[in-house]
Each structure stands twice: as structure tokens, then as C-alpha cells.
Amino acid sequence: MAAFVKAINAKIRSNPTVSYFCSTHFWGPVSNFGIPMAAVVDAQKSPELISGHMTLALCIYSATFMRYSLAIAPKNYLLFMCHFINEGSQLTQGYRYLNWHHWGGKEKAAAAAAAK
Amino acid sequence: MPPTTTMFRAARPIFQQTSRAAFRSQFARTSGRRFQSTTAGSEGPSAQQQKTWFKRMWDSPIGFKTVHFWAPVMKWALVIAGIGDFARPADKLSVTQNAALTATGAIWTRWCFVITPQNYLLAAVNFFLGCVGVAQLTRIAIYNASQKKVAAPAEKEA
């Protein structure tokens, strides 16, 4: 069994493209893409679902990891893109949250619904 | 008379011991270093002890001034925000966001043990992030189940 695994691993590592797609450098950032995807899906829904604290924490987190992904060796541009997109998504959600709760968005929506 | 090579070999311990002892005593008379720089030699061991833990962390390539230190620390903010969200009512929670946080926490916990060097602090923060995500998803599931229970008897009555 161990020899079988070792043989497969040797085959994977011999091809640089396959090796990359079977590596943590690829799948770690891919799993992180779930966060901006969740934010994009939630942007279509009501702003009531947005957690202000979590959105702020994710903004700071993505900014930090944009820097981290370029500071490590080797640089991970996929992780950088993931957090760059997440920064945009979280800032959008943050704007929707602030607009809803602090800048009159909820009242405007209520008034528009009442007018209908 | 045994051959001279054998005699030399037999006498080796005597010679080696004295030469080693002589070398060591001469070595000890100096500061104990093979090579001496001008500043280190004069200051000696006290300079090392004066560099405190904080100073070493400040100057280290993975210390307080670098992102390598602060990136894992930042991730705790997500865990704390998630714990703060336990107070949010279950109908205001986002399924997709908590599922994404659970997935990323689980995968990065595993990766922290397979990289070199293993980063236990990062593994811990990702583990707790996964736990927070699972807790929130459970709260959402329980709420949805209770909503169905409320809706079903109401439909039966209607």
C-alpha cells in the first residue's frame, strides 16, 4: 500500500503542472475562494444577513493576507487574487451594511415597499 | 620486535591524549572561541544576555515588524467576530458565509500539519474558525428545522 502511494506521488511530482494542481499552494487558496463567493451570493440577499463585525474583520484579514501572500516564499499570486477579490466583496458588503443600518437604507426600502 | 606501524598504533592514545589536552588548555586560556571578532570578543557573553526577548522579536525576520507574525494573529479576529455572532439571532445568519468559513478552517487546519515547518499556531486558529463555522451552521439548521415544525402544523390546521 505504501509503495503504491509512493509510486503515485512520484508520478505526480514528476510533472510540474500536475504537481502544482495537486499541491497545497493551489488548494489552500482555492478553499479560501469560498469566502468571496459567499459574499457575492449574499450581496443579492437582504442586508439584514450581513454581520458588521465579521465583515470588518474580513476586510482587515484580506488586506493582511494580500501582503502576506507576496511576502512569503514562494509568492502565492492565487492567494493574492483570492484576497484581493475578497477585499472588494467585503467592502461592498460593508457599504451595504452601513447604508442599511446607518445611512437610511432601511427606511428608504420600507418607504418604497409602503409606496407600492 | 613488532613492526613499527603496530608500535605507533599502540602508542596512539598516549600521544593523542597529551596533544588534545595541551590543545584544550591552550584553547581555554583564550575566550573559548575559535575566531574572535573585535566587538564580540571584548563584550563577551554579557552582550547576548542584554538582548531581551522583546528586542529579539522586534528584530527577527518573523518578528513584530513583519507580516509573517501578524497574518496568523489577524485570523483570530475572524474567530472573535464569529464568536460575537453567536449573539445574533439565527434567522440573521448567512449559510453561505458560515459554510465557507467552515471549509476554509478545516482545509487550512490540515495543511498546517503537512507543511514544513508545521505551524501549530496557524493550525489552532483555523481549527477554532472551523468550530465556529460548524456551530453557526448548526444553529441555522436547528432554526430552519424549528421553522418547518411551526409551518407544518399551521398548514395542517389550514
From TrEMBL, chain A:
It comes from the Eukaryota. This is Uncharacterized protein. It comes from Nemania bipapillata.
From TrEMBL, chain B:
This is Uncharacterized protein.
